Amino acid sequence: MHDEFLCHVTAYGVCDGRRIGVPLGTYRAPTLALALWWLRDRASWIAERLDPLPESPHYPKGALVPVAAGVPDVPRLLRRWCADAAQQGLVADELAVGRLVRIAASDDTTEYELLAESVDALRMQRTVPPLVVPVA
Known about the structure:
The chain has helices at 32-50, 74-83, 85-96, 119-123; strands spanning 5-15, 18-29, 101-106, 111-118, 131-134. The protein is of the alpha+beta class. The longest helix has 19 residues, at 32-50.
């Protein structure tokens, strides 16, 4: 069992023809449960900023509109991942055995990436490929 986990959230976009990453947060979780909590919290945080509640008093009526059909809905994908107990269990299992976990969702302009890895695994050479969890 791995006891400590390093978690990162990054947004990637294209600027001047180059892919640029913007760090949105890092957390060194002392337990697996806290690593999972932080990843869900950050996914929810991103979803709320991309897709706030329309009834919020901070926005004029009609200022927010639904995403058009066929356009990737990152907030919906992230919220679905947060609520999916099976996905959470898979992530927990992979982290517990020392694997790197990457959760990513993209729209037309930006990719949002959540990464988590055992601190012990960072010290050891990896022999197994990372788990990539699609959220679509």
